[in-house]
Amino acid sequence: MPPSNSWIRLQPLSEASDNAAATALTMSLDNRGLAYGDGFFTTMGVIDGLILWSDYHQQRLDSHANALQLDIDSQALLATLQIQAKQLQQGMLKLIVTRAAQDVRGYGYAPSTSGSACEIWLKSSAMPIATAEQMPLPNGCLVPLQPVASATCLSSQLACLPPPLAGLKSLNRLDNVLASAELQRVKAQTLKSNPFLLANHLPASAEPNIGEGLLRDMSGHWVEGTMSNVFYQLSESPFAKSSNPPHPKNNNYLSTGQWYTPSMAQSGVAGVMRQVLIDGLSTTEQPVIIRSLSDEDLPHLSQLFFCNALRGIMPMSSLTLLSGEVVAF
After folding, report:
1. CA–CA distances in Å: residue 50 to residues 21, 128, 317
2. 304 neighbors 232 (Cβ within 8 angstroms)
3. In 39, 48, 76, 168, which residue has its Cα 20 to 30 A from 62's Cα atom?
4. Is the dihedral of CA 294, 271, 173, 204 positive or negative?
5. 80: which residues sit within 8 A by CB, 6+ positions away?
6. If the chain, 329 residues long, is cut into consecutive pieces of 10 residues, what is the mean pLDDT of each piece?
7. pTM over 0.70
């Protein structure tokens, strides 16, 4: 097992191999992931030596390999990752897959019926995965539940992408980088404008606890968070908010009311946890509906949470609009 927080390059495994073979990090500056963002990544939580949602991560490996025309044996790769997870026990695995160097000059690559060869890079990080609170899905799965926080709308925007690329967790994430920087500025401004926080040396997000920022794409629709997908309910809908709205600590939080999540058809990342929740609610009376989230919807939100594969569900108590108006849930 490599030292925590160090990168290794995974080597192909024979079917009879019992141990993950890896070499020390040696990446060429001609690596296509570095030069062109030609590849993708996925981040996996590990608890008790097991990869969380491993079936969904395998689906991501297969779908991304197909979309980017990469030659990946997802079953063998996942077996290698599980060996690493067993040694790690508790923490995070980050996997980066890039297209191998090509003889073709520039952007191009030689077509192949099985897809291009890959370079596969892995970093393991020993870290706690917060699971003190968990929420049961109707299908019996347990999803980590984070403390309630607040959210804010950001002015940064996501790129709209063509169908082969939309929804992929590709290495082209500059729009998320800029959006995350904007969120950090908002948190810093919150600290600067609150003398109580400064006087008591509290973190920027201490009060209010700004947990995530909501992002639009270039078409003007609100799509996701800086590092997460978003789910919401509307008060003015066929399933209007009751006088006793569900609380995140209630077991019926997810199975009460109609949940929506934006489409990933032209922007955003189709996250692992997003699909876990869609599947988990698919057999209920009110399965998740894929629906755009517009400016006109924001004042009528009655519930909002973000989610990703590491943190699980991140419920929000309020959303600050670009106008400064605060919508409370």
Report:
1. 19, 14, 32
2. yes
3. 48
4. positive
5. 10, 13, 20
6. 74 46 69 95 94 96 96 95 94 95 88 89 87 84 92 97 94 96 92 61 57 96 98 74 66 88 96 97 94 97 96 95 95
7. yes
